[in-house]
Amino acid sequence: MDTRLLRTFLSLHTTGSFTATAQELAYAQSTVTAHIQALEQRLGVRLFDRLPSRTLLTAHGRHLLPIARQMLELVERAERIGDPAAGGHQVRIIAPGTICGHRLPQAASILRGQEPPVQISVAAAGTARALEALGEGSADVALVFDCEWSPGARVEGERVGAEPLTVICAPSHPLAGRRVGWQRLAEHEFMLLEEGCSYSDVVAGRLAMAARGRARVSRFGNIDAVRACVAAGLGLSVVPRVTVADAVRDGRLATIEAPGLPSPRVLLVARESEDVEPVTDRVSEVLREIFRAAGDARAPVT
């Protein structure tokens, strides 16, 4: 099978647009159309529904998606066999933004110093998307948060640590440095990460219960925006302690002691496949060591 057809298929799935796919791949739009038509004819099924706003995968297209990704990955790996500059296998890690920013840089440094060196690519995502990426074959290793309070299905994986949470506020806030209950906290505006962040969803639910459905919660797409708004005195938030340690130490943020904060477990989940290479085990072991060194694996789960 012509791998160009598969690359065009994957690009169209990502962009949702024949025009955007043509721009991304530097093709004429007619070439993109021809590639998709050729692939559909080859397989004997329709792969996309053409809607006015975008293209969407059909059931057959969703079935092809992980297969196409795996096929292209195998081709890329084969092409690197004779290239000494390729630096070995690349392991694709998907994890929450907190872990991407505060744990994985150390992993990358360690792995590059090993022989042979290991390259990692990192993508930020919540638990649902991370597990989906493993199933599709677009990621090799996922680190996900599993919160005890979460009402959803439990995630099956190896626990490698925990990320304790803390309530943060501006240093001038009247609750700064105090211990208060959830009913008192629920009287204030909260800024949490977007829906799908397991611990933020749990905190939002707890606030809603304490405020009898009248909690004031805003959602943000990244933790940097949350920290900036809290520092400006716009409200409170609950975030992993590691993400605000420097700001609290420097006096830019303050903390509030709250009873019963969840301490999300960090689970390591590896892609289940017969072609998973030993280098993936090397990456997993480095991740275990990083969390052990941070003391997270011994942190109590409340």
Your description of this structure?
- It is a single chain.
- The protein is an alpha/beta fold and 302 residues long.
- The protein has 3 domains: 3-79, Winged helix-like DNA-binding domain superfamily/Winged helix DNA-binding domain (Arc Repressor Mutant, subunit A); 84-161 and 264-298, Periplasmic binding protein-like II (D-Maltodextrin-Binding Protein, domain 2); 165-256, D-Maltodextrin-Binding Protein, domain 2 (3-Layer(aba) Sandwich).
- 43% of the residues lie in helices and 18% in strands.
- It has helices at residues 3-15, 18-25, 29-43, 59-79, 97-102, 104-112, 127-136, 182-185, 198-210, 223-231, 245-249, 278-293, and strands at residues 48-50, 55-57, 90-95, 119-124, 141-146, 158-162, 165-169, 190-193, 217-220, 237-240, 254-256, 265-270.
- A 5-stranded mixed β-sheet has the order 4-3-5-12-6, sandwiched between helices. Strands 10-7-11 form a 3-stranded antiparallel β-sheet. A two-stranded antiparallel sheet has the order 1-2.
- α6 packs across α12.
- The longest helix is centred in the N-terminal third of the chain and has 21 residues, at 59-79.
- The radius of gyration is 23 Å and the shape is globular.
- It starts with a helix and ends in a 9-residue tail after the last helix.
